[in-house]
Amino acid sequence: MKNFFVYDPGFGGMMLFETEQERDASADESVKHYLEDDEWDEAVTHIRVGVITHAPQQVDYKKRPLDCDIDDEGFDDEGLSWNGDYEYVCNYAILPVNDGSG
What we know:
The protein is 13% helix and 36% strand. The model has no long low-confidence stretch (mean pLDDT 93). The chain has two domains: 4-51, no CATH class; 56-94, no CATH class. It is mostly beta strands.
């Protein structure tokens, strides 16, 4: 999962990386873009580097019931409408990311 980032509003916007090393190399390149004719553009101070700790994730996931469990009006036994061609419904919440270390 790409949990490391560089945010450079002048060159590239938000960039995601799988490792700290990739992130840091990209950040170093971003900084270099702001040096012109031996003078620094003060916008270099807008670069941000970090680790993503939280992101939107699916919650309240419910798989589409079998057609025999949906009534003629498209509702299941809980009153949820399945009118449409989708395989599941869910909500999203900002939750801690799983970095694979646990």
